[in-house]
Amino acid sequence: MKIYTTGVAARLLGLGTSTIQRALTAGKLKFFMTPGGHFRILEKDLEEFATQQGLAWPPPDLGAPRRMTKVLIVDDEPSYVQLMSAVFQNHPDYEIRTTSSGYEAGILTQRFLPDAILLDVLLKDIDGREVCRLIKRNPELEHIRIIAVTALESESDIKEIMAAGADDYIAKPFDTDILFNKVELCLRSRSSVLRR
């Protein structure tokens, strides 16, 4: 019998992690707790929940090898790098790289070829908007989804960030569930564009 984390259960059903967590706390999805205090879900309980919710089971790609989703985190504040990295720790299908340098972000983008970039706008060595423009100008990289992570919140700043090529933005400080959901939504919209 397989046992799933909330992150894996969410991915299998195509739901957000916060949706799975709400189902757990509302008693709609059975679970047990590990000695470390983490939620775990038995396969039979996840199947029962999926059936009740009208979701496909088994998921179409259950058992198939998964392609890792690559995310590059670019921020010169170590606390934010740590926080954003932690968002993906319970999601084994994500591969994360980090850098504090806008210059290095350009090199890593070409080598790592991430699916999404979480990009701090106010970097010390180069403005994040310029990093965004350089990536989006490159035909081989323009498909990469960029979410600007910024302390700038004025309407004019946001317009400028989006005009530089960002696909979305999130203001600091942020809720980690919202950050993860923004990444997921950006990646879904990328998939729909690539299928056209």
Structure description:
- With 196 residues, the protein is of the alpha/beta class.
- It folds into 2 domains: 3-52, Orthogonal Bundle (Multidrug-efflux Transporter Regulator, Chain: A, Domain 2); 69-195, Response regulator (Rossmann fold).
- Helices cover 44% and strands 18% of the residues.
- The protein contains 8 helices and 8 strands.
- It has helices at residues 6-13, 17-25, 43-52, 78-87, 102-112, 128-137, 155-163, 176-195, and strands at residues 3-4, 32-33, 39-42, 69-74, 94-99, 116-120, 145-150, 168-171.
- The protein has a 5-stranded parallel sheet, sandwiched between helices. A 3-stranded antiparallel sheet has the order 1-3-2.
- The radius of gyration is 18 Å and the shape is elongated.
- The N and C termini lie far apart (39 Å).
Task: Tell me which CATH architecture of the largest domain applies here.
Answer: 3-Layer(aba) Sandwich
**CATH topology-level name of the largest domain:** Rossmann fold
Count of beta strands: 8
Give the amount of beta strand, in percent: 15-25%
CATH class term of the largest domain = Alpha Beta
What is the string of helix and strand elements? EHHEEHEHEHEHEHEH
**Cα-atom Rg, whole angstroms?**
18 Å
Number of domains: 2
The biggest sheet amounts to:
5 strands, parallel
Structural class: alpha/beta
